[in-house]
Structures are given as C-alpha cells and as structure tokens.
Write a structure and sequence with these properties.
Radius of gyration: 17 Å
CATH superfamily: Phage tail collar domain
Shape: globular
CATH architecture: Alpha-Beta Complex
Number of helices: 2
Number of strands: 6
Number of domains: 1
Largest sheet: 4 strands, antiparallel
C-alpha cells in the first residue's frame, strides 16, 4: 500500500508539472467557481499593479482605464447538454508566461 501512495504522489507531481497553464489561457470549466489561480470570465475589473503579467497580455482589450485597472473578458455561461447545470469560462491568472515569437 505504501508503494501505491508513493506512486500516486509522484504521478500527481508529474501531472501538475506537465499541466501548467499559460497566463491568459481561457478554458471552459464545469463548475460555478474559479479554481485557485484562475478567475471567472465575467468582465470583472482587476488591478494592473496586482496582475501585471495578465495585463501585459490583455491590456485594455476588454475594458478598464489602463492606469489602475483592466477588465477580463465577459464570456457567456454555457448550459450543460443535459440541462441540469452550467459551465463557465475561466482565465488563468498565474502560470507560465507565454513566449512571444
């Protein structure tokens, strides 16, 4: 049993390393909240000082004053196909800074 726990722990570390997200990456998430390091794409304003990396990618494309604030995209909630739930778009706030060509 100890070996299984160790293997599981190693697998999780490997998975996290391989699955690091890019800052600004937007994905559809089957939940009504944003996981740690992500934010809902609901048009909210963020502080440029606090989220400098995200601002350097998005700028004021989606709003904000460009001095103190910028806005995240405002994307619609997507109903699940069974009609029993909803999914939301989320954006990565912390992760790997995407390289530019």
């Amino acid at each position: 049993m100890l070996h299984i726990k160790q293997l599981f722990a190693i697998s999780i570390k490997f998975w996290r390393k391989k699955m690091d997200s890019l800052i600004g990456q937007i994905v559809l998430f089957a939940g009504n909240f944003a996981p740690h390091g992500w934010a809902l794409c609901n048009g909210q304003l963020l502080s440029i000082q606090e989220y400098t990396a995200v601002y350097s990618i998005l700028g004021t494309t989606f709003g904000g004053d460009g001095v103190q604030t910028f806005a995240l995209p405002n994307l619609p909630i997507v109903p699940d196909t069974d009609g029993k739930g909803e999914s939301r778009y989320i954006i990565c706030l912390y992760g790997i800074y995407p390289s530019r060509w």
